[in-house]
């Protein structure tokens, strides 16, 4: 109602006034989280492992899901935070675990770990409960690939009683739910989920000799995303906060794969490459405008991490942020990006330590409170939050990415 809106605006105005009066105090706080200069953090490989990769980052860039890999032994799931550094997540009783995704609030990590009898099982990890086995769809194994913003919805794949892979959606209330397929019976798995858990993307056998990407919604079921012309395979790997933009890869006429961006209105868009034959998209911002992944480059045995926008096209991150890299270092793959696009994680070659290591790239943009992404925090940003005050979050106005536009977001501005 109008009365309710006036009360909201009055309260918001009081909050803004208090925030302005406290500005001198806030500006005196010098913390890593408020830095605006680009920087890169390399994750030292834990003892006993050969290399590590960073797979996912929280909305504020303070929590990263990392897997440490061993060439000849079990892998290890880790959680890194600015405050505590690297923390092992353990296993489900067996040898080996991997961390694939972290919730936007940083509280929940999902992945796969071996249980006491050696089976790989999907897990949900929190600081309070540790690693929890999510079960299966009737078969022996499962794997969790992505988690909603608040950690309540998890998606991945599981064997069914016939030991065929099926995509699943898990919640505490419902347990593991089979999403079905696009018509085939041999294969289906889920890779990404929207902020509120209502939209899921992945790939599925369609019963016609193809394995295209899919977009699943509770009301409409599973939608075939198709492929690029001449191709038979595609993947939906990640999805924007509202579920409208899907990114991944698709096979072309030459049999190679290209990074793609899909929308209902525009269909499948080839994002190009970095001079080599193939590219793969693996992460997307909350608003669907910035995409990261990796692409082949000429005259190199290793791919290069990229960032794509409609305005810039595909950029080689090793070139864009060359000033942050020691001589001989380069970024091989980008696996994830924060909802606002500021933080990017992946892995590369750290020549300073002569090892393959995971990285956290802080691009320094957008600035804290820069709602409209124009490089300046001003009254336009304040008004944008005020007009959206009290509404559902997981959008640019929801600066702390907690699901609602409220006084905490005003204080950011």
Characterise the protein shown here:
The protein is mainly β. It contains five helices and 28 strands. It has helices spanning 2-21, 23-27, 317-320, 379-387, 407-412, and strands at 39-43, 51-57, 63-69, 76-81, 85-88, 93-102, 109-115, 120-126, 130-133, 142-147, 154-159, 165-171, 175-178, 188-193, 199-204, 213-217, 221-226, 234-239, 246-251, 257-263, 267-270, 279-284, 291-295, 304-309, 313-316, 330-337, 343-350, 355-362. The strands form seven sheets. Strands 1-28-27-26 form a four-stranded antiparallel sheet, with no helix packed on it.
Counting helices, strands and paired strands, the structural category is: mainly beta
Number of strands: 28
From the N-terminal CA to the C-terminal CA, the straight-line distance is: 26 Å
Largest sheet: 4 strands, antiparallel
For the biggest β-sheet, the strand order reads: 1-28-27-26
Radius of gyration, rounded?
21 Å
Overall geometric form: globular
Number of helices: 5
* Approximate strand percentage: 35-45%
In terms of quaternary structure, what is this?
Answer: single chain
The average pLDDT value, as a whole number, equals: 92
Low-confidence stretches: 23-34
Helix content: 10-25%
């Amino acid at each position: 109602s109008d009365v309710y809106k006036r009360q909201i605006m009055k309260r918001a105005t009081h909050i803004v006034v208090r925030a302005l009066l406290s500005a001198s105090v806030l500006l005196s706080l010098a913390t890593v989280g408020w830095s605006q200069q680009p920087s890169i953090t390399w994750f030292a490989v834990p003892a006993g492992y050969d290399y590590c990769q960073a797979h996912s980052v929280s909305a504020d860039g303070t929590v990263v899901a990392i897997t440490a890999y061993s060439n000849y032994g079990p892998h290890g799931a880790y959680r890194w935070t600015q405050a505590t550094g690297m923390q092992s997540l353990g296993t489900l009783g067996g040898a080996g675990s991997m961390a694939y995704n972290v919730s936007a609030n940083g509280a929940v990590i999902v992945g796969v770990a071996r249980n006491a009898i050696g089976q790989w099982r999907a897990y949900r990890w929190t600081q309070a409960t540790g690693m929890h086995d999510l079960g299966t769809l009737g078969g022996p194994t499962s794997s969790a690939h992505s988690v909603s913003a608040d950690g309540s919805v998890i998606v991945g794949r599981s064997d069914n009683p016939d030991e065929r892979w099926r995509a699943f959606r898990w919640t505490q209330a419902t347990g593991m739910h089979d999403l079905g397929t696009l018509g085939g019976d041999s294969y289906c798995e889920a890779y990404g989920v929207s902020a509120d858990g209502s939209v899921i993307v992945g790939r599925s056998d369609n019963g016609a000799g193809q394995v295209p990407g899919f977009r699943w919604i509770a009301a409409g079921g599973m939608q075939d995303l198709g492929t690029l012309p001449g191709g038979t395979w595609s993947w939906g790997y990640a999805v924007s906060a509202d579920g409208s933009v899907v990114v991944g890869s698709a096979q072309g006429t030459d049999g190679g794969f290209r990074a793609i961006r899909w929308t209902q209105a525009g269909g499948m868009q080839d994002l190009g490459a970095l001079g080599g034959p193939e590219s793969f998209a693996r992460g997307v911002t909350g608003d669907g405008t910035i995409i990261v992944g990796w692409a082949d480059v000429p005259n190199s045995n290793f791919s290069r991490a990229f960032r794509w926008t409609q305005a810039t096209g595909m950029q080689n991150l090793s070139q864009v942020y060359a000033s942050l890299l020691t001589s001989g270092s380069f970024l091989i793959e980008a696996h994830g990006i924060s909802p606002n696009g500021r933080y990017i994680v992946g892995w590369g070659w750290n020549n300073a330590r002569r090892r393959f290591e995971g990285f956290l790239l802080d691009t320094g943009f957008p600035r804290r409170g820069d709602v409209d992404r124009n490089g300046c925090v001003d009254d336009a940003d304040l008004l944008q939050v005020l007009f959206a005050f009290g509404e559902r979050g997981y959008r640019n106005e929801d600066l702390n990415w907690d699901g609602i536009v409220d006084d905490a977001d005003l204080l950011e501005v």
